[in-house]
Amino acid sequence: MSRLSYFFNRLFKMDWKAMWKTTALLKERSGKSRIWLLCDMLRCAVKYNAGYVDYKIAQMYNLNDAQRRTVITRGISNGIVRRMNPKEYWHFFDDKTQFNALFKEWIPRKWLLINEATTAAEVAEMMTLPDLIGKPLEGSSGVGIYKYTPADWADGAEAFLARLKADGIGILEEIVVQHPEMARLCPTSVNTCRIATLLGDKAEGIVYGFVRIGNGKVMDNVDCGGMAARVDLESGKLLTVGADKAGNTYTKHPITGTEIIGFTIPYWEEAKAMCMAAARKVPQMRFIAWDVAITENGPTFIEGNSFPSHAVPQFAAHYPDGIGILTEFRKFIDC
After folding, report:
1. How many domains does the chain have?
2. Are residues 209 and 118 part of one domain?
3. Residue 39 belongs to domain spanning
4. Does residue 137 have a pLDDT over 90?
5. DSSP alpha helices (H): ranges in 227-329?
6. Which tens digit of pLDDT belongs to each residue from 6-56?
7. What is the CATH number of the domain that holds 275?
8. Which SS3 state, helix, strand or coil, does residue 235 take?
9. H and E: helices and strands count for the chain
10. Same domain, 169 and 202
11. Can you give the pTM of this predicted structure?
12. Eight-class DSSP state of 231
């Protein structure tokens, strides 16, 4: 799809009310008029395939054209995914039971498929664990994920199975206990690393790494109020402040007080090696964003994303010089 075709397609589907609300926020932040912002948004949409959310997150109103050319916008991201990941292979990642089975050597926890064939006896076996996580078979952004404790199955396995079905749960898993060092960031959520592998035409390797940190909720996802910080790929240290989707930044975690810049991810080398080994399991899928939890015994997969979000790696706070992450992608592929 050409840039112009993409622009008109997005224009037709635009949530104009949300866009107008965004311009009000950006007017306050930038000091620029709404008319100027709207015109500049449209210019960025045509020239860089940027949606208004891209424009806000990357703070494109502060960037010159050279800097804007380094932003990975939604249109560019969609093009990379279409080119790198044939849709007929997405099911290995989109179906969580298929993912757990395929990558089982890196997923030691117990899990159970919840469907019409699931028995109360199978659920009762899972109930011997202290806590459980329930997820829909497909989905993203933390939607439809529940944490269950013994209080939730106090009425027995039959009642708990009915509850799981009513909640839309497709897979029930043993909860991951994170490394104590990762819990220092935020103990209420498993703070996962997002590590993106790229099997490119120019090179193969890891294109970026971020840690996602919760902010008091069960989920660390930025769509659930969490934040992200960029990881130095060589050292495993956090390079930047934490930043959330609303544009707030944090040098220390607001709940735990843990310093974010300079924090070191345990087992970072092992996590990178695991992701690269896993990337070659389905080599047709050349661009995967892996969600990795760090436990006391090393890294483990939470899931792999066949259509990686471009939002987390594009927060303006992570690129204070205005040079975005597209420069990293160009080391691996032409884009």
Report:
1. 3
2. no
3. 3-69
4. no
5. 268-279, 326-329
6. 555 555 556 678 788 889 999 999 999 999 999 999 999 989 999 899 999
7. 3.30.470.20
8. coil
9. 13, 11
10. no
11. 0.89
12. B
- Strand pairing partners for 147? 133
Q: Cβ distance 271 to 293 under 8 Å?
A: no
Question: Has residue 221 been placed in a domain?
Answer: yes
pLDDT at 140: 58
Residues 6+ apart with CB under 8 A from 323: 67, 70
Q: Considering the domain boundaries, does residue 334 fall inside one?
A: no
Contact 128, 192 (CB under 8 A): no
In which element (H, E) is residue 209 found? strand 204-213
260-318 confidence digits (pLDDT tens): 999 999 999 999 999 999 999 999 999 999 999 999 999 999 999 999 988 888 899 99
Q: Are 197 and 205 in contact (CB under 8 A)?
A: yes
The C-alpha R_g of the chain, in whole angstroms, comes to 21
- In-domain check, residue 102: no
Alpha helices in the chain (DSSP H): 3-13, 16-30, 34-48, 52-57, 65-68, 74-84, 91-94, 96-102, 120-126, 157-166, 180-183, 268-279, 326-329
pLDDT in tens, 220-230: 567 667 899 99
Structure token digits, residue 155: 């009425």
Which residues is 113 bridged to in the sheet? 171
Let me know if residue 167 belongs to a domain.
Answer: yes
